Amino acid sequence: MSLDDRTLREHLDRRATAGVTDVEGIAEVVMTRVAADRGPWWRRLGVRTRSLGIAAAAVVVIVVALAVLPPRIWPGPGASLSASDPSVATGYPADRPLTAKELDTLLGPSPADRAGVVVIADVGLEELPISCPLPCPFAVTLPSRTIKVVDLDPPVLGALPDYDAPQAFRVLDNGQLGRLGSVRPGPGGLAWTLPQLTAVLPDLRGPGANPAPQLYLVEAWRVVSPSAYRCPVSLSDHNPDFGCGPVAWLVQDEDSVPSTFNSAPLGSLRVPNVPSEGDRPGPVAEHGFWLVDPLIAQDPDRCFLCASAGTADLIGRVLTLDDLAFTPATPPPPAYPANRALTADEFDRLISGDVSNLIGRTLISDVELRVQSVLLCPVGGDCPEYMVDLPSGTRYIQAGADPLLPGPYALQLREDGMLDLLGSVRPAPSALTWTFGDYLAEIQDLLPRARLTSQAYLVEASAVYLAASPPCPSRLESPGSTFDVGCGHAVWLVPPGSASAGGVLEMPDVGVRVQNDAPVAWPAEDSGVTSYFLVRPLGVDTCFMCTPNSTSQLLATVDPIDIAPASTALPTTAPGPTAGASELAVEDIAFSTESVTLDGFETADVNVSVTFGGDVVQYHQTDGSLTPMICLERDGTPASLGPHPSVLSRTLVPIGGAAEPWVASFRLTSGDRGTWRVTCVVAYDADGHELSVYPALGGAAPVLEVIGTHAPHLTMEFDPSPAVIGEALEVSGRVTDEESGDPLAGVVVAIGQGSVCTGGGTGPTVATNPNGVYTYLIAAADDLAVCTWISDLDGAYPTLSGDPIAIFATLFAHPTEP
Amino acid sequence: MEGPLERELIEQARRGDRAACEQIVRRKVETVYRTARAILGNDADADDATQETLIGAWRRLPSLRDPDRFDAWLGRITVNACRMALRRRRGPALVALPSDSGHELSDERRPGFEHRAVTADAFDRAFERLPVEQRAILVLHHRDELSIAEVAARLGIPEGTVKSRLSAARAALDRSLAREGLR
Q1: Which range is least confidently modeled, A110-114, A150-154, A447-451, A486-490?
Q2: Domain with residues A712-813, CATH architecture
Q3: What is the ipTM of this complex?
Q4: Does A143 reach chain B within 8 Å, measured CB to CB?
Q5: A118: part of which helix (H) or strand (E)?
Q6: Is residue A471 over pLDDT 70?
Q7: Residues 677-736 of A with CB under 8 A from B
Q8: Smallest Cα distance from B70 to chain A, Å
Q9: pTM of the entire structure?
């Protein structure tokens, strides 16, 4: 079925308007976020451009380093920081928040046992779909459970949590989590040093010292005055936290703890001294990670002995993993395939090792599948429809079933290293494998639409076969018919252990009929062996000797495999390159030459190199659409350039270390004559943040001049025009010398339709006759674009990646359009 | 997005004027949301993508050299935001089993609508198998009714590439519909 334009538009319009979201509400949220957004970092430094910002920031960093960094962080000129210095904290909470998995393990089976503990975790907050008075509840989904979150930080009207930031929680007595607020990570990790924090406080402090929208974790020493101060008369009646009695500050390091407390310690942050809660220590000097809410009013009339740097509410102390005595339990993993699927790591380890015994075997794994980009299809080869990203690399999957149904997936390893997809597997309610009884009950629920069920089920069962082969009913003998479960030996799956040795002589009372030519190794005739069978429910209307409503297609048997348990140790540093990632930027773009001269079918390879600032990632291993790329655009309108492309795009490839340029190579032809400029550079960091730069818009792009003479000119016509869908269509045209108009004989022209016209497509070719004319007959036209082109690799159209292929001319047209 | 007022608004917003930004957001939020909703197919992802698009536009507005290209520029950010929304979505999309409740665009609801065999559920499943680039090009051309040249400007690719990608997207959609038993 090919949808007509109107039908397609109606469906797309339905999708666009089906939502119930109030877009005005989105606008409100956006404006709230815009109001909280202070623009790019260089604008906050008071400069208008990024380059000036870099210079200004460098000066600031040097000055701050010289002025305020303590010796243990920056020992001074000529000294280097010892990586083995035990006082340099690593891991949680200094460098990173807990992952969802770590939080899950930390909370354990009885979260209430951790009541009072303050944690910071990188988990997604899900708003519960109910209307509620403030504080409104959330939920977070952890690997083993979903846990309710009570918001202890009721938002200002209209404000929402920062969902992208780590969240701070206090474990409540009932085992739920109390959300304390979103946490703004420090510049070098999760925690801020005190100088870093006090440096940003003036930025945050508004009229009336409004509370900052986010919490801050600061690594500091908390000190308390050894004696209670008499309260000034003006504070005697209010503001007990920042008023009288023992006075508390956060100070930079142990050396900063003052011996006398007649005034606020230099560079300190005044915090309340309220020892009533378990996570607020008593009056002793103590090092720790303190969760603070800056900008409590520091009106001198209200804040007694406040530091000049600022004040903050002390939300709680975040304990380290050692403080928490957190040793994640490592229970043995449940058995595969009875209780669970293989993890992606386990699956990867299996198929990356000795696979001699795995070829053709069926494995069920929790891998994530995605659609293979057509841009990455090998030229001339079968194009896999799907791919899976594994630690050892990307594996490609030929289509065999619908992968967009929920996983896990049943996959078979092929000899060529690719995978075959048998289908999506529907897990049993509490395990991967269905008991026989549960499967019978399930397929009763699925009927009568069982034929439309695309998911497979793994069932523990025994297989038996009919010893005799009774005559086939005449209604099933009509030639040309196909039946899911037909004649000959009948085969059933029966409850495990219920099969008697040898074949049965009549239909079992309880059983699921499966096809007798299933692609599995059947048990020997004298066995009723129990195994794990991967089946897909079927209807019963074409089934011979079927038990009522219980017929299935047997896809494979799945063998148990002993899997070595994967390490569950906590990482001590932030996963991936996120922690040290710097902001992406394009620092330089250059052509390998300023001009080239080409005549006729001559070609020239020209490189464009791009030097990036920041950690650009070559993403093609995980998502081809995120591979860094560059575009060139030629002066002139597409119409004036004839059949010669006006834009060229290529992926960028790194040629050395991080500081080395990335390069794209373009094979240019005489038809590419004109002035080319770099119009786009797109790249991504490890977190998928996009850098899109359009150098030509600013007039700063390097320029390449191509002088081309005697370029081939290509035309294309259809007969009939417009084409009649389903009928023959003749595609013809001429190739001539663009300058002289002379016909060019023997030129190989490729013709394609539909996906062939995409990058990497390969089309049939014809050669021009002495008059420069080519002709190609499409047996049955359809409503797809037709393309013709002349390249230096016959029949091949260049891809974004791979070796460059020259395109001398190319045309597209819709044959059904007049 | 046209006219001198619009250009002036963009210029003001580029200079950091939040009031101008708010006007732009209010004028564009519906368009961005509908495009994202058509590409992504659900409220939550479309909501996220719309927010990210408009916030991203605010943050990157100073890099927009030509205010007349604002729409194309915003459209490109929208498609990128949709792509990021799909990447953030953990696991494969949940696709419901076809059922009798799957509503069908009928003549009664859509006068003149002739393809009753393609239910909304089947179309959505087929559409959501396409990569986001193909979804986007179909939405921009067939739903937002942008010309080939406008799509090219919006996606930053040449018109010929738009045509070929559009053709490939239609073919992919046809194949995907066929897998729904609709061929």
Answers
A1: A447-451
A2: Sandwich (2.60)
A3: 0.81
A4: no
A5: strand A118-121
A6: yes
A7: 679-680, 688, 690, 692, 694, 697-698
A8: 13
A9: 0.34
